[in-house]
Amino acid sequence: MLGTIGLTVIMATAAVAAAGLFGPASDPSSTITPLPAPPVVTTTVAEVAILSYRVTGSTALDIAHIEADGSFRDLGIVKTPYTWSASAPTAVAERAKVIAVCPDATAWVTCSIAVNGTEIVRSAGDGRAVCGPR
User: Fold this and answer.
1) Tell me: the pLDDT tens digits for 67-100?
2) pLDDT per residue over 10-47, tens digit each?
3) What would the 3-class secondary structure string for the chain be?
4) HSE on the CB side for 114, CA within 13 Å?
5) Which of 22, 56, 88, 111 is least surrounded, with the fewest CB atoms within 10 Å of its CB?
């Protein structure tokens, strides 16, 4: 005789098997469909450079330069020496430009551009200096 405990174990095993927990169920409509894989999210960090300008002259100068966001900004008449530095995307640093003009064209003017602390261009002239792509 099986007894109460033996009969309970057999009934529990049958119930588990019927539920499909020991393997795939015999009914194809009850198969488990796997969830789709989560989407792969990638992020790109733009390369950033420290862009710096320096302008000197014997008087105040009309200065314009490329900003960190890539826009061109005319500062108007500025006392010298003038320095400006900011983090900028590498693409902006590659096309950096500063223009310095003496209103009366008599001052010796210099400008320079540095990227990550390394001077990449320097220019000087009587009354005007332009650094960067022309």
Assistant:
1) 999 999 999 999 999 999 999 999 899 899 999 9
2) 444 555 455 555 555 555 556 676 777 777 665 455 58
3) CCHHHHHHHHHHHHHHHHCCCCCCCCCHHHCCCCCCCCCCCCCCCCCEEEEEEEEEECCCEEEEEECCCCCEEEEEEECCCEEEEEEEEHHHHHCCCEEEECCCCCCEEEEEEEECCEEEEEEEEECEEEECCC
4) 13
5) 22
